């Protein structure tokens, strides 16, 4: 599989001693480092905790991280990002919302609310529901075909959780088991969906070039661009697979978690703020709720990593040296009381926009060249909300709330890596709707 250069065995201080990693935990420091073109670089081996566990670290890098545009810099990253950006432009997002996400949500809700339980309530598992909804967005983004039956959709959904866990197993307990399940899911995804879809796109490319069909007859997607040879990295099938699985994990996994966590914290909010119940389907209120979730609980990992490239320093005077590992503590930065107020550690959908111009979501989407590809998908191209807000509104409108008889189940994480609260990543989240 694709290989990336392994990191040095430890960064050296100026006097030759081993230098520990540095933590960037303020928005000021994160902005300074990530917006610089020379200060830091991505290193997938750092994110995969290779030095701590070389065997599993190598699996994560070669199978899930190293070849993706999310973990490279320079022209390779810029070209691929430029090619994929039109997939989330305004007209594309509108089509995804109106033609794919919301109709599928309506269809699935109708099925889930068709038959009540013996107590007159309707129950369904929200992780599986949301993954089914977002699978269609992911399929369009990647260019996957063959998701035309519930059985095939369920098969694709079964890969989502394991592959997402495999991209970040360095932060989870029982990493051996997590990677084993991730590799099995990836292998099935490749054989059952990726390869048939790539062959289909290659055939469509042949037909386009011979004039049988027009370019516009084939929807834009990652695999369409790959079949056209628009990026050198995508001509290598192994690298293209990694690109597709990370897009899969990011678009399905993070979207699912953001909706669930919004519902989870909003229900707690309404207990203490019953007057806000009348706003539970208000789009602006729900957009602010989603942004608050992104601020508090994204990117659903304790920190992101970078490799320092030059001498630098943090705002508290901590020196940074070349080849030093950096932990970018988004969650801690987003709890800064000087920016977000004295209740920065609490969920507050009515939080005012920070006076210094910091977005409501803080640095939850990252900053700089590698800012999260999904920013516009969530907040919309106009800042008024995308498909996520409308999907959340539908769920709130029917009265979805956590099922008190079926507590949620989350992935078991390595809490030694967390300096703030646990950031849940749910694998099961049952909800109930009254008759």
From TrEMBL:
Source organism, top-level taxon: Bacteria
Pfam families: p450 (PF00067)
GO molecular function: heme binding; iron ion binding; monooxygenase activity; oxidoreductase activity, acting on paired donors, with incorporation or reduction of molecular oxygen
InterPro entries for this protein: Cyt_P450, Cyt_P450_sf
Family: Belongs to the cytochrome P450 family.
Entry protein name: Cytochrome P450
